Each structure stands twice: as C-alpha cells, then as structure tokens.
Amino acid sequence: MTRIAIVFATSGGNTLETARMAAVGCTDAGAEVALYNAAAFSPSVLLEHDGILIGEPTWGDGAHHADFARFDAAMAEVLAPGRLLAGKGAAAFVGCDRAYRNFGRALELIEGRLIECGAQVLQQGLKIELKHNPTSREYTKRWGRDFVARLRGELERQDHTARMGRADVDRVMGISKTERENRDLQGLY
Ligand SMILES: Cc1cc2nc3c(=O)[nH]c(=O)nc-3n(C[C@H](O)[C@H](O)[C@H](O)COP(=O)(O)O)c2cc1C
Questions:
Q1: Is 10 in the pocket of ligand 1 (CB under 6 A)?
Q2: What is the model's pLDDT at position 133?
Q3: Would the CB of 118 count as within 6 Å of ligand 1?
C-alpha cells in the first residue's frame, strides 16, 4: 500500500479543505493517507510515508504561516542534514490571494525545503485562491490522484518550477477569461 502524509497549516480552513480534497484523491487512487496539522506534529512523521504533500496559506508578505514556520524549522534541523527524505516523492499546495505581490510564494519555500531534505518534487504545486468552490475541489482531488500515479511511476513527472500564474489559478478556480475581465472592470476579485 502506498502511504501518503498530508501536512497542512490553516487559519480560515481553506487550506485544510485543500488537504482534505487531496486526501480524497489519494484515497481514490488506492493510497493510505494520514493528515497532520503542522501545529501539532513533528516532521519525523514524514519518515513513515512514501509520499508527502505539504500545504499552508501564504502569509505575511509571501512568507510561511506561523504554524508551518515551526514545522519548517524542525525539517531544516532534523531532516535536512542527513537528507532523510531521499527516495520519497513530494508536492506542495498553498493558499493565495492576487491582492498580494508575492502570489502564493509559500509554494517555493515549501518545495525548497523538501528538496533540501532529499525529497523529489513530482508535480506542479497547487495554488488555491481564497475559498474553494466545486471546480477547485474537483481539481484538487485530481491533483491528489495524479500525485499517487506519479509516485508509482504510472504518470510522467511534471516540472514543478513551472509555477501557476494568476490565469492558471483562474482555471483551477473555474473562473473564465470573460468573468475575470468583468471582475477587473468592476474592481472585484
Ligand atoms: C495576514 C495574511 C497575509 C497573507 N499574505 C499573502 C501573500 O503574501 N500572498 C498570497 O498570495 N496570499 C496571501 N494571503 C492570502 C491567504 O493565503 C489566503 O487567503 C488563504 O486562502 C488562507 O487560507 P486559510 O483559510 O487556510 O487560512 C494572506 C492572508 C492573510 C490573512
């Protein structure tokens, strides 16, 4: 059985929902999933799994959320020196908001740490803007299913450095180009 750890931090619950939807996708693909709130666990739990998904809302100005900052520092201290995540596949997901200059930048921070710890990032990181809707929930489930397929070598790996821009995130959220233009005209999100 493929074992997946999903670590998350959240303030408003949106990133928890991303974690839950990704978990549904992983389970649909036949994996065994454990969810960990970064505020309550230490990174050594990652050692018990084959695949790792980590997510948090982007915070501050393109920084870590406080709950994940602590987990991240422990990853640097405990896992990075021996590259203890070598042989494991990983991917990251974040909350974002286009009102901020550093749009979803926590993704790069998480991926950088995973790589430093020896893990391989297997697919493009997922950005969810503000609140989930039915389209983004389905996208997230598929993202979880695809991750398990990539971990098993059933699907080609994706270049994680090709980051989702604002238009890509609109596609994830099911916002059409026309809808975006209308929102821009009205000064709405
Ligand atoms: C204090 C604060 C700072 C934020 N900073 C950023 C940021 O720098 N970049 C970004 O893309 N989103 C930023 N966001 C948006 C959040 O990442 C986004 O709303 C996310 O969906 C919140 O997730 P949660 O419901 O799991 O807490 C910020 C939100 C707050 C409240």
A1: yes
A2: 98
A3: no
If you measure from the C-alpha of residue 172 to the centroid of ligand 1, how many angstroms do you get, rounded to a whole number?
A: 17
User: Are 26 and 72 within 8 A, CB to CB?
Assistant: no
Cβ–ligand 1 contact at 100 (below 6 Å) = yes
Phi, psi of 74 (to 5 degrees): -70, -35
The CATH code belonging to domain 3-185 is 3.40.50.360
Look at residues 117, 39, 44, 50 and name the one whose alpha carbon lies nearest to residue 109: 117
- Residue 83, amino acid: R
* pLDDT value at residue 107: 97
Consecutive 10-residue runs of the chain (189 residues): their mean pLDDT?
97 98 98 98 98 98 96 98 98 97 97 98 98 98 98 97 96 96 85
Q: CA nearest 93: which of 20, 151, 175, 33? A: 20
Q: Which residues contact 32 (CB under 8 A, 6 or more apart)?
A: 1, 2, 3, 4
pLDDT of residue 72: 98
* Residue 146 CB partners (closer than 8 Å, separation 6+): 25, 123, 155
